[in-house]
Amino acid sequence: MAMQDALISPITKPTKKPPPPSTAKPPQRIKAKKLSRKKRLQNLERQVYDLEGVLTRAQRSRTTLLPWEEIALAFKEDTLNQVRDHRSLKRQLQRQEHVNLVLQTWVTAMLLPPPQRTLNPHADTWRHSHLIQGDDDIRRTAQLWIMQHSYHNTDRAMSRHSFPDSMESLVEVNVAVDDDGGGGLFRVDCMVQYTVDLPLQEASDVYWLAENSFTSYRQDAPTFFEDRHAVQHAALRYDRQVMSVHMAKQNIRSHSLHGQFRTPSRTTVVCRTILHDEAFPEEDAAAWVLDAHLWTVAEPVGPFTTRVRTVYSLDHPRTAAGRIVSADEMATEFHLHQSGHVRAFLNRAHVRQRQLFFDHLTSLIRCTTPAGL
Fold this sequence. Notes:
It is a single chain. About 45% of the residues lie in helices and about 20% in strands. It has about 375 residues and is of the alpha+beta class. The protein has a domain at about 150-370: Alpha-D-Glucose-1,6-Bisphosphate, Chain A, domain 4, CATH 3.30.530. Strands 2, 3, 4, 5, 6, 8, 9, 10 and 11 form a 9-stranded mixed β-sheet that branches. α6 crosses α9.
């Protein structure tokens, strides 16, 4: 049997047991899978790019139709704005027409009566002490015009006086008498110089406050501290006061403009009496009126020192009705025995007044500056 089995079965060589089938993927399949994933990412990026383009075009070409209520409201607001602009322009036109009428009347009255003469830009005329009637803007323009004229004549006014080159303090008062025609008219010219131990800016602030509060200080009514800040920040002020003279019964009407002009190296303060104010006519025809004109120039002479120079002139008093006050009336008013003593009295009075002003300025320096606190 064994022989038969051997004849029937094929003769084979015995071999080892075959290894199990391998689970690793062929390299070609792995590469194909990587390429497929990369292609899908590229397709997705392309789709994102296309969608962004569609979104951009949609946003660019999109239009929004507003409701009729919003459109009507927009037209209403635009119409109201145009109406307000029209009314504002109409008011401006009416104001300019009024200004034109006032100035035309003013200029016409200035040129009459004949003969007409060429106006002197340096000499004062009634135009420089006459305040026209009108609204606040018109009067403000007139006040600025008067102050500008005084300011641009500062150097001319200061050149009439010989100030010393030194830093000494001085007060010089000259009382001149014009005897032409037997009138005996007085004119007071005063020159003052002193220094203040403050920088220019602080010295200018204190002087401006002192100049605008001196009348109240002389009348023992120190109410100016209540509006001190308002005064310091005002470049132009118009005061209407009635002053009383020491030992005199006669009141003096004082309508005056005060203006300050500042540069980094100089401060100029000008004051001018308004002899006639159309908006506030004088009710007392017998009241005295003094035509005064003042210039003050403050300049630094060191980092913490300021030199102050002041010149002012004061003409002979007149009544509000225009009548010249006689020397005898002045002597009687000031309790003088003779009219010839008026000149000496005025000299002493103005020297005393300047000393009083300096005391007032010194007290303000102590009260308002950090150095004086």
